């Protein structure tokens, strides 16, 4: 099982940035990811001020709650849409708890509707001797599995991340595409992560991780299997 080397990833990305202007084919490969970033910017503009709407909607649909701790480096922890933990040795989903935790570096609260569908995720981080709510994520479109993630800056919710996931089946294979766009300004989405997974039934067959940094036009791809 491979180890996820964060420093190596960023060092590789740095080298790509240095070489990009001399490689026309590389610029062409970056173009569709830049267009996808622009698409996410439009979603950001549409939903950046709608936190209270989604908060009220989630509260009205809440039927049950679960808690978990751990899951560092894995978006949404135990219920992450990512499959990176299947291929790397230093990433895990954490574990579910029977009651709300009082400590821990990373803790999650999962909110489900009456159909036992996950509709809201709250992330708590330990600051000093207390847990503080760091971000809240809402499911706003079940068909596209579109989620909005708001972080709290001095107690004020700011739209930080947008993610979506789709699943298709062809013959005996299952194809899953998971995207997460982060770090927005009104004109740009600075960071885009895409995970392309293939399964043969329940058996993982391949995983490709793609990271695109729009501010530097840097594209990083890693075949995990």
What features would you describe in this structure?
This protein has helices at residues 6-19, 24-47, 51-61, and strands at 64-69, 95-97, 106-112, 118-127, 130-141, 146-153, 156-170, 173-184, 189-200, 203-213, 218-223. The chain is of the alpha+beta class. It has one domain (6-223). The protein is globular and about 50 Å long. It starts with 5 loop residues before the first helix and ends with a strand.
With helices defined by DSSP (H or I, 4 residues minimum), what is the helix count? 3
**Low-confidence spans: pLDDT under 50, at least 5 residues?**
none
Biggest sheet strand order reads: 2-1-3-4-5-6-7-8-9-10-11
According to DSSP, the number of beta strands is: 11
Distance between the termini: 10 Å
- Give helix % range: 10-25%
| Overall tally of domains | 1
As a percent range, the share of strand residues is: over 45%
In N-to-C order, the SSE pattern is HHHEEEEEEEEEEE
Q: How does the overall form come out from the CA principal axes?
A: globular
Radius of gyration, in Å, reads 18 Å
Q: What's the story with the biggest beta sheet?
A: 11 strands, antiparallel
Mean pLDDT: 89
Class inferred from helices and paired strands: alpha+beta
What would a concise description of this structure say?
The chain has 225 residues and is of the alpha+beta class. Helix content is 22%, strand content 45%.
């Amino acid at each position: 099982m491979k180890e996820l080397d964060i420093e190596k990833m960023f060092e590789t990305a740095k080298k790509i940035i240095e070489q990009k202007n001399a490689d026309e084919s590389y610029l062409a490969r970056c173009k569709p990811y830049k267009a996808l970033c622009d698409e996410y910017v439009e979603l950001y503009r549409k939903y950046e001020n709608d936190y209270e709407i989604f908060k009220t909607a989630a509260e009205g649909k809440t039927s049950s709650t679960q808690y978990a701790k751990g899951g560092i480096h894995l978006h949404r922890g135990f219920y992450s849409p990512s499959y990176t933990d299947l291929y790397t040795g230093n990433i895990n989903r954490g574990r579910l708890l029977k009651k709300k935790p009082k400590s821990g570096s990373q803790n999650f609260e999962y909110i489900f509707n009456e159909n036992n569908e996950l509709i809201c995720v709250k992330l708590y981080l330990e600051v000093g001797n207390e847990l503080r709510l760091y971000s809240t994520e809402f499911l706003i479109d079940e068909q596209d599995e579109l989620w909005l993630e708001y972080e709290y800056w001095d107690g004020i919710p700011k739209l930080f991340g947008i993610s979506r996931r789709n699943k298709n089946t062809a013959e005996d294979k299952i194809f899953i595409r998971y995207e997460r766009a982060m770090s927005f300004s009104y004109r740009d989405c600075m960071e885009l992560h895409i995970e392309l997974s293939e399964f043969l039934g329940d058996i993982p067959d391949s995983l490709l991780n793609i990271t695109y940094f729009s501010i530097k036009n840097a594209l990083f791809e890693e075949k995990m299997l």
